[in-house]
Design brief:
The complex is a heterodimer of chains A (288) and B (231). Chain A has 288 residues and is α/β, with parallel strands linked by helices. In chain A, 31% of the residues lie in helices and 28% in strands. Chain A has a 6-stranded mixed beta sheet, sandwiched between helices. Chain A has a 4-stranded antiparallel beta sheet with strand order 2-1-4-5, with helices on one face. Chain A has a 4-stranded antiparallel beta sheet with strand order 13-12-11-14, with no helix packed on it. In chain A, helix 5 packs across helix 6. The radius of gyration of chain A is 21 Å and the shape is globular. The two termini of chain A are 26 Å apart. By secondary structure, chain B is an all-alpha fold. In chain B, 85% of the residues lie in helices and 0% in strands. The chains are: A alpha/beta (288), B mainly alpha (231). Chains A and B meet through helix 2 and helix 4 of A and helix 5, helix 6 and helix 9 of B.
Chain lengths: 288, 231
């Protein structure tokens, strides 16, 4: 469990990035920080592994205040994935994945063997092991980034817009992969994004931020979608724009499928069901 | 050819000495310039002071420097140390800017990520910044190498025994072949040094080659795509 207790951060130039922020992040769940840029979400994420130290308040992991721990040791115990991977271009893929175990003093042979297993875990072919970063595609690089973060088997995984720079199809693949990994490995994941759809796809708990580290709403995707706390959240999740307002259009009764259309008339998907009962389905539903 | 055949022992001795007098300043220049170059990227003031002052060093004319150094260092007037110190100063002057550029070329994302992985600052320098600065450092070293080998010959004016002797002696005695031999020998040294540096780069920085390969590969691919579009 990670706990933020009245955390504030004022940067040396005077900007207040985070103001009196408190939150409980449950273990073995995916918590997503979502907000536009300048909302302080990345700053908060970086407080967990002490890349940033708060100017007031405490960050507590499993009842231990992180300010008391050595930053270097702390970071080696927490997985970190960032946008563009942040992988080392001068090390082979297998050595990139083995980075943290090697820093922690694991023998080279053992660390490499584990790294190869991790390539399997994140769905990469072992033939990539001896390549360099520049020989991989963007999606493959992000998978290497995830494998590297998992290498020391940390309990906590911090992800800072990790899928922001890959194309939409690969992004969906990576999101599904992350959900599978989280189910299999039972990690506590804190995920930062500015994409509300990504937040709803991944998050067990979603925290919506306003500018300046102010929390607009905390809840499950269903709760936030069903009851936006205020106009800001409603607008942020797009509830006011029609994409989230869906209605059904029965099509071709023999196929048994019903078309779901949003307010702009854009087909959003299909519902399988008994065509005879389609009249009973509420005309207006919301996605959750 | 006659002159060379009857004097090859002298040429060999002068060449070896020339090599020795070049290698030492090149290495000293590198060792001093790397930390200074790294320091120069810590802030704008640091950069201003370090880059300006080291660049100014290069404007000191070499002959007066050779003459003043014994007085400053307390060395004998004819000692090789004077030449080595002077050439090291010039090597630093060239190399500091290259070193600072090389460290500035390291991606901030990679530096940030390496800290997040749990590299200590010291490990981050040696295992991330220094190797990644390698390609630009190497380019700087190739310039320093050529410049130092050329400058060594000036040392003959303060009694240093190197290939420069063939220039002055050949000119005084009107032996063109002797001057030509000196030029070819220094060119060969410069060429061999450059080859060694490039080879060192291939061995120590294998990743930067695959980088280029993939870059040219992607460029070729784009050309193909453009050609396909045009067709």
């Amino acid at each position: 469990m990670i706990e933020f207790r009245s955390v504030s951060k004022r940067f040396p130039d005077g900007t207040l990035a985070v103001d009196d922020f408190s939150l409980l992040i449950p273990s073995r769940r995916i918590t997503v920080f979502v907000g536009s840029s300048g909302s302080g979400k990345t700053t908060l994420l970086r407080m967990i592994n002490r890349m940033v130290d708060p100017t007031a308040g405490q960050v507590v992991i499993d009842d231990t205040d992180v300010s008391g721990s050595d930053p270097v040791q702390l970071r080696r115990s927490i997985g970190y994935v960032m946008q563009n991977g942040g992988l080392l271009p001068h090390r082979r893929i297998v050595d990139n994945v083995a980075t943290v175990p090697l820093l922690r003093g694991t023998s080279k042979a053992e660390a490499r063997a584990r790294a190869l297993e991790l390539l399997d875990t994140v769905g990469l072919d072992r033939s990539l092991a001896n390549k360099y970063l520049s020989q991989l595609s963007g999606g493959q690089q992000q998978r290497v980034g995830v494998a590297r973060a998992l290498a020391a088997d940390p309990n906590i995984l911090l992800m800072d817009e990790p899928f922001g720079a890959v194309d939409p199809i690969v992004r969906v693949e990576l999101q599904n992969e992350l959900k599978r990994l989280q189910r299999d490995l039972d990690k506590t994941v804190v995920f930062v994004t500015h994409d509300i759809d990504e937040a709803f796809t991944l998050g067990d708990q979603v925290v919506v931020f306003k500018t300046g580290g102010i929390v607009a709403q905390v809840g499950t995707p269903a709760e936030i979608l069903a009851r936006p706390a205020d106009d800001f959240v409603a607008s942020f999740i797009g509830a006011d724009r029609g994409q989230r307002r869906l209605h059904l259009e029965p099509r071709d009764p023999s196929s048994g499928q019903i078309l779901v259309v949003d307010d702009t008339g854009r087909p959003a998907g299909l519902i399988d069901g008994d065509p005879r009962s389609s009249d009973d389905v509420p005309v207006d539903v919301r996605v959750s | 050819m006659n002159w060379f055949l009857s004097n090859w022992e002298l040429v060999l001795e002068l060449t070896l000495n020339h090599i020795r007098l070049s290698i030492i300043p090149i290495i000293i220049g590198f060792v001093i310039a790397v930390p200074l170059g790294r320091l120069a990227i810590t802030g704008r003031t640091a950069r201003g002071i370090i880059i300006t002052s080291t660049s100014l060093l290069y404007t000191i004319p070499s002959l007066p420097l050779f003459v003043i150094l014994p007085a400053i260092l307390g060395t004998k007037v004819l000692s090789d140390i004077n030449l080595i110190v002077a050439l090291s100063i010039y090597a630093v002057a060239i190399m500091v800017r290259a070193a600072s550029d090389s460290f500035a070329s390291v991606s901030p994302d990679v530096k940030q990520a390496s800290l997040a992985m749990g590299y200590s600052r010291w490990q981050q320098f040696w295992k991330v910044e220094f190797p990644l600065a390698g390609p630009v450092l190497l380019a700087g070293m190739r310039v320093v190498s050529v410049s130092t080998i050329a400058l060594v010959s000036v040392g003959v004016l303060i009694g240093s025994e190197n290939l420069g002797y063939l220039f002055t002696n050949g000119k005084q005695r009107g032996i063109l072949e002797e001057v030509g031999t000196g030029i070819i020998a220094s060119l060969l040294i410069a060429l061999v040094f450059d080859l060694i540096l490039v080879l060192l780069g291939r061995i120590l920085l294998p990743w930067s080659r695959s980088d280029k390969k993939s870059q040219s590969a992607s460029a070729a691919l784009q050309l193909q795509i453009k050609a396909a579009d045009a067709a």
